[in-house]
Amino acid sequence: MTSLSPRIRIGSAPDSWGVWFPDDPRQVPWRRFLDEVAQAGYEWIELGPYGYLPTDPDVLARETEQRGLKVSAGTVFTGLHRGPGVWDATWEHVSAIAELTRATGAGHLVVIPAFWRDDKTGEVIEDSSLTAAQWRDLTVQTERLAREVRERYGLRTVVHPHADTHIDTEENVARFLDSTDPDLVSLCLDTGHYAYCGGDSVKLIETYGERIGYLHLKQVDPAVLAGVRAGGVPFGPAVARGVMCEPPAGEPALEPVIAAASRLGVDLFAIVEQDMYPCEPDRPLPIARRTRQYLRSCGV
C-alpha cells in the first residue's frame, strides 16, 4: 500500500510500556523503554509522566539521540475547572514540564483534564458533570494556560479528551471546542478514549478538522468495554481488565482514522498509546513491533 500522507509522523509513548507514574517498581526502567521503543521501529516518543525519563535536558538529549529518538510532546494533568484558585499550583507543575518539553525540541504540550473519580480506587472525587460556572472556568483557564505556554515556551497546547474526566463524550468534546479559541486550543484526539466514551473519531475529524492538532492511536476491546460500562468500572481497573487492546483487534478501525486525518493536509503526530498498567515487562516490545508493522500496512 502506498503512503497516505508523508505528513503523519508515527511514534509511541511510555504508556505503551505500562508506564503511568514517574516511579513504580512494576514499570520497566526508563533505559529499557528507550531501547525497546527504538528497536520496535519508532522514531518519536512522548515524555510520559514527568520524572520517568531524565529531567536534565542534556542527559535526556544524549540518551534519546544515541538511540535515534526524538520527542514530540510533554504531558500535564490539570484541574482547571476548579477555578482561579488552582492556577498557581497548576502553573508551577506545567511550567517545569513545558520547560523540559521545549528543551527537547518538541512542539506540543498534551493537557489532560483531572479525573472525577480516582483511577485506582474508583472513589468518586467530584461530580461527573460540570456546572455552567465550572465549564466557564475550564474554558477560560485553558485558554489562559495555552496562551502562557505559547508565549513563554513556544508550545502548542492540545487538550486530550479522556475517560473519567469532564471532557469525554461527543457532547462534552463539542461543547469544549465550541467554547474555546481555535487560535489557542487544539485537540489531542485519542481514538481509544473517544471510543471508550462512545465517540466516532472519523466523524470528529471530519467535523472539527481545523481543531485536530495531535493524535493518539489506540483501540478498545468492545467486549471488555461492554462489561466495564455495565459494571460502572473506573478507568484504571478497566485498563487492568484489558479494555485497551492491541490493534487491529479492537475499535475504532485505525485505517479510516488515518485516512481522515491525512485528508486534513496538515502535519500531525500520531502517537501509539496502548494503556497497559500494570503489565509484565516482557509484554510491550512484541506488541509494539506488531503494531508498528500494522500501521505501515495502513500507509504510515
Automatic annotation (TrEMBL):
SUPFAM superfamilies: Xylose isomerase-like (SSF51658)
Domain of life, source organism: Bacteria
InterPro entries found in the cross-reference section: IolE/XylAMocC-like, Xyl_isomerase-like_sf, Xyl_isomerase-like_TIM-brl
Residue ranges constituting the Xylose isomerase-like TIM barrel domain according to the UniProt record: 34-296
Name this protein carries in UniProt: 2-keto-myo-inositol dehydratase
Originating species: Streptomyces antnestii
